[in-house]
Amino acid sequence: MATREATWDYRDRHHERFARTYFRSFGNCVVSSVGVGTYLGDPTDAADEDYREAIVEALESGINVVDTAINYRCQRSERVVGEAIADADVDREAVLVATKGGFVPFDGERPADPGQFVREEYLGTGLVDPDDLVRGQHCIAPDYVSEQLDRSLENLGLDTVDLYYVHNPETQLESKSRDAVYEQLEETFTRLEERAAEGDLRHYGVASWESFRVADGADSYLSLPEIVSCARAASDRAGTDATHLRAIQLPFNVFMADAFTVESHDGAEGPQSALWFANEAGLDVFTSASIMQGRLATEMPGSVEAKLDGETRAQRAINFARSAPGVTSSLVGMGSPDHVAENVAAGTFEPLGASAFDAVFE
């Protein structure tokens, strides 16, 4: 797993190339504020090779955050992340590796009949209870998530994953009450606390697409204070000294700034945005969709772009995301080695200060 000594050594080797605050604290480690995302791409050998080359280059160039999920590209993304970490001239303990469980993954390729695959591989084997499966593809029951963690560790070739997310729990709201989802999260967090005590993961978190950036009362809304409460209860149930809940992941970019602008989480002095609540609660934030799957490389409001440093529009978009309060690292899809150098170089430019970032929204 990532360690203080190895991540600080990594920072010391690379930090002179980057602007201030490029490396940021994560627990007792330091990590790059630009991270590798592995969501996009086809489940093919050619895409695997591109990812492997890109991740190796990123790790050797100053990025030590890699994010994936068991369902990305039919488990291929996790497997290629493991290969890249083994191939790169970087100490494994210098790298923060994050993955996720929740969506039912295919294995290597999309099957001709996905429904039959799920019935045979998950329902028929008892890995998933039909009552826990939503939309035929999503489950966050504790036994299932624990089994998926085992698979992820095998795919990655690692003994410990640094950050394990429960993936898009708001999906469960399509067929369950909000209270039922919180109850299941507490049960699953309890199992993750136990797995942390066993050394299989260091921290856990929640990766969300909608739930933390929509208004209270929206169909997909989940409360961050309730999430924290579930984790504290889980720690008590598991008998761990303190909760291992450490981070959230959510989309944040120029066009999707709801995590900063929508105040839907109850703080000590009233409603707060997800970013401000996380910041004050001590939760690290990892942003997804930082360049909006490439859209921000070609399109950006001129009034915002004028305030951002960077040689390219993609770099300016990355710097917007990592300028937000409380953001530890902004993830960027790097499925091709062609874009790695440009993405890494975003970190050589200064992020916006707090007042300048606030001014973007005035």
UniProtKB/TrEMBL annotation:
Q: Which Gene3D superfamilies match?
A: NADP-dependent oxidoreductase domain
**Residue ranges occupied by any NADP-dependent oxidoreductase domain in the UniProt entry:** 35-211
Recorded hits in InterPro entries, A to Z, give: AKR (IPR020471), NAD(P)_OxRdtase_dom_sf (IPR036812), NADP_OxRdtase_dom (IPR023210)
Q: Fetch the CDD domains from UniProt.
A: AKR_unchar
Q: Name one GO cellular component term.
A: cytosol
Source domain of life: Archaea
Molecular function (GO) terms for this protein are: oxidoreductase activity
PANTHER family named among the record's database cross-references: GH17980P-RELATED
In Swiss-Prot or TrEMBL terms, this protein is called Predicted oxidoreductase
Native organism is Halorientalis regularis
